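Our collaborator T.R. sent over the components below with a one-line note: 'Predict the complex.' Nothing else. No constraints on interfaces, no templates requested, no preferences about which chain binds where. So this is a plain run: every listed entity goes in together, and whatever single assembly comes back becomes the starting point for the next discussion.
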Amino acid sequence: MFVARSIAADHKDLIHDVSYDFHGRRMATCSSDQSVKVWDKSENGEWHCTASWKTHSGSVWRVTWAHPEFGQVLASCSFDRTAAVWEEIVGESNDKQRGLSHWIKRTTLVDSRTSVTDVKFAPKHMGLMLTTCSADGVVRIYEAPDVMNLSQWSLQHEISCKLSCSCISWNPSSSRAHQPMFAVGSDDSNVTYSGKVQIYEYNENTRKYAKAETLMTVTDAVHDIAFAPNLGRSFHVLAIATKDVRIFKLVPMRKESASTGPTKLEVQIVAQFDNHNSQVWRVSWNITSTLLASSGDDGCVRLWKANYMDNWKCTGILKGDGSPLTGSSGQPTAMSTVVGSSVQTSQNALNGMSSRSELTASHASH
Amino acid sequence: IMSGSKPDILWSPHHPDRYVICDSELGLYRIGPTGGSETKAGALPLSEETAATLLAINSDTPYMKCVAWYPKHEPECLLAVGQANGRVVLTSLGQSHNTACKELVGKEFVPKHARQCNTLAWNPVDSNLLAAGLDKHRADFSVLIWDISSKFSPEASVASEKIRLSSVDLDSSTVVTKPLYELGQNDACLSLCWLLRDPKLLLAGMHRNLAIFDLRNTSQKTFVNTKAVQGVTVDPHVHDRVASFFEGQVAIWDLRKFEKPVLTLTEQPKPLTKVAWCPTRNGLLATLTRDSNIIRLYDMQHTPTPIGDETEPTIIERSVQPCESQIGSFAWHPSSQNRMVVVSAANRVMTDFTVFERISLAWSSTTSLMWACGRHLYDCSEDGAEGAIEKDIATKMRQRAQSRYGHDTVQVWRNHLLAGGKDSQLKSSHMKQCAEDMELKLQGNKQAVVYSGIKNIVKTSSGTTESRRCWSGSDRQSDVPRYHSEERCLALRLCGWISRGPDIDVEIFLRSLEHEREWERAAAVALFNLDIRRAIQILNKGATADKGDLNLNVVAMALSGYTDEKSSLWREMCSSLRLQLKNPYLCVMFAFLTSETGAYDGVLFESSVAVRDRVAFACMFLSDAQLPRYIDKLTNEMKEAGNLEGILLTGLTKDGVDLMESYVDRTGDVQTASFCMLKGSPGDVLKDPRVQCWIENYRNLLDAWRFWHKRAEFDIHRGKLDPSSKPLAQVFVSCNFCGKSISYSCSAMPHQGRGFSQYGVSGSPTKSKVTSCPGCRKPLPRCALCLMNMGTPVSNCPVTGKSEEKVDLTRENKLAQFNNWFTWCHNCRHGGHAGHMLSWFRDHTECPVSACTCKCMQLDTTGNLVPSDSS
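Returned assembly:
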């Protein structure tokens, strides 16, 4: 049962991204108002904005935290064609007393010629590495060779994906059995270019990233992509936000010792849900990758959960403004597709599920 | 044919709940919440929450081509209607008692030559000015600007003066034929809008160009040749930004550089019918094409100002589907965020629709969900109340960690109770650990025996003897052969059927089952031990017990009729009816009684019966040839399913890791996997990369939850079982003079801290003096506050009584000792006694050393976080 409450964000324009730190005690938001805000959770559970500053000269698309062992470090990316790295420092004034913190720009990454659409830190076991992707279809991987000096970043890899990139996600697996891997999604709306999700893997011999897989069945624009926390599982799970919610399972095939190419992945679609009945905008996994949240143009947030048999079901729907979902559905478009199957009550949190999605899931898993 | 004219919608400029639909007539509607007191029976539902009530209809003005709502507050319901003959008529909806309105309503503005009026636009500032755009006439102008306050037509001035004197003839006084301005000669005007940046400027979509007319100098116009001349509209937020369209293509113009469009949007296959800027959102343009049920939205992001470099503004394109039917027209609500009313192309079906902002979201490590919708944030967390949905494993693991799940290393079997005690799989996995515990004791701890599973035990089975025992309570010699061996006996112990020691009686087990009210299971176990009388007794007891099931008596009755006659009616009935028994144990009882010797599939493959009961059964009744085959099969089944009950079979071997892998793959429960596998052999199992990976992931989870104490306890527990996991000493302090480590005396047990370092000085009471370097005997640095040498015990806690009695390690005492620890700042390298430093920083931000401005206490953000599992 989930209950929503509103927080006064005080951004002057649309918020494009929210991001939690490792411990879930801090949060960063970024907006079209070109600013980033940092929020701290007090002991009583309230969120307080402790820093807000102009970061870019365009909309800020994404903001993300580095692992705390690298310090209090944020990265942001923007329509202004740059990505930036920010570090919290001890203020010169008594900021801390006033509940404020001070962030300074450590570097601006200016390699992209177009809007930088996503920025992500690599898993911490790889060191302090930062990845960006941009509208011109280039993924860039930067490394800070000296973790004490965040103003020095060297461009380690530049990978051309051919299609305009909208989102990127690192495989978080820290298992030595898995090579570093990331997935990149494209929002190119031309359905004739199939395979809007590409998966790249690091090859130790060539010391380069090579394409391991293209998900050819994803033909529509992809808005978001998220590898599930691996948690020691033997396979990887990838959630994709496109015209529907999709969950893929990537099972690494046992590698013959002699082969040097990328790991062969067996791609299985585990679930496919069109309950949003519109473009799906974001997907996010919980820490154990047992709950998936998605948001769509229907203005709703949906929660998905798998049972023991790997059948995914919708376990909750909330409206984007946190208000209860009344009647048989939130809006006419949704009404037409989940006819009769949704058993929704006037609570914010619901256990309603559509039999349609169940069918989709079981069908897909066969 | 006017009746077929396409519908349009206009929101009232002043009443946020009113709008007009114009098709063949004008209909004024009021929108309100469904079920509100204002909604009447005839209200039309527009959405889940809202409905519309028809307030007024006006069908006085036929041949409508375009409508524009008077922008000033008074008169409030005045509309200008452009007709097919080019006339513009002022009309009103509903009753108005406003005298100004009465004067204006019915007024007509007539062009010299009749042709279609395409568009109307009220001047936003000088509301007397109404611009009308007309089709082409070679001898006339196509843009006429009327002054609605004109009293009469100048041509008829003489006549009208007379009329005015008489002041009765309303008809002729309402006709105005002389426009204030005439623009665009010998041209056509398709669309018009007044520019917001200067209300003297009128932008017109002419036949082949966009033109800007300046009322101060009508002889001149600025124009640009383009086909995109339809639907010109100014962005209410960016007054220099204009949109216009042609066929399926929208052009965006910047009036400051009017030579060419700054942007053209992706061409639509069907011709556009309406393009409108969102009044509540900066840079949001909505477009509609013919025969379509979707509205396309273009979110224009601010163009950065690059130095010398050209860039295009970026567009986020979306489409929304407000209704199922094809859309005739739509109109943004003037003030409600992102809201519009949509009217269908046919039958005037209306929909109230809000375009939702795209929501971005994120889960926190503690399973609360934050999302951003528009400019707002929503924090959503799992309600503490026991919901109908099963709790997520992340929540479960957190709760289990808090209840010290896995930490009861003495009574391992109690761990499933710590886990909540509801999960039968966890219970059995800890039963196994309990059994393992027992096995260790059995074998007298000869060596570190690691539980290797019944699979391996029965493999080595030798010296099996066969016995045929009588049924207790029956005189007949039983046909049932039972097998015995030392290994089988051990397996039965592991299954929990017989207890440790030489006693092989199941009676103790039966009693415990009775105590747990597991009547059917107890009866089945009794029966498998060939004690039919005991089985019946148990069932009777179950039937008569408080809230007992009386049907158990019926079962007992059936049982008492047991006969081993192969062709008896009893057998026939039992083997067919047993499948209808809902309880699996009752079912397998009759399966056992009715089956042929050695063919016990009805028992062995009844998956609802606990694995340990089936395995115990197999160990009693399967031959040396059958048993390993069955155990192998069952093992593989358990491995495949990731069923923890199977750990009984696999033990903590590689097989067990395989099984656990499958369990983790399904559940993500690395907590159980970590605790379970810690007991495995350090060589094979603990070194398995999968096990290492689960342990690392579990520790990482504990860290993310700030369960640092739990993580530390886990590490201690792990260190006991896997000594190689112990980390080396982390911090050494070396003497300023000789450079040697000063911590010789406590090197055996260095204090380990997190986030800051300290040197224990008063931990060992045997140390007499540690204020000097043990190497060179030079004094150690001084505390920045008390100026005592490091190592000098300080007392800043008031001495309680005659303190020198005994070293009482109470919590308070430990804290007092911690105050003596020497701490320092890594940044400025000043330090002192922990207690002194803490009390200093309670009131200060900077280091206590003079001229040092280091903000020591604020340097480490993680260090300021408190663990969430401390008591």
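Summary for T.R.: Helices of chain A lie at 332-337, 355-365.
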